[in-house]
Sequence to fold (90 residues):
Amino acid sequence: MRKVKSFITFDFPVNADYIRAKFNSTHSIYKNDIVDWSTNPTKQKVIAAYWTRDVLVHFALLFGLPALLMFLTPAYFTFAFLPQFLLPPL
Fold:
């Protein structure tokens, strides 16, 4: 439940412990492959992963999932977004 709340409020990626752990794991992966690997490219990798993975997945799920559900149930949402003057009279 904590992860769901953290995902919706989007506070998990800005947690200092999460950033530290992500930085250390990313740095150790690249440091094992490339001997001269420094912390600057690791910082860039972590920032790029934040924008490409965390932010895009967060907004895709928060906006895409309701849109998908809306299109899968068209009978319920038929008149949901029509202006009032376009609705048929009752």
About this structure: Residues 1-61 form one domain. The radius of gyration is 21 Å. The chain has a mean pLDDT of 81.
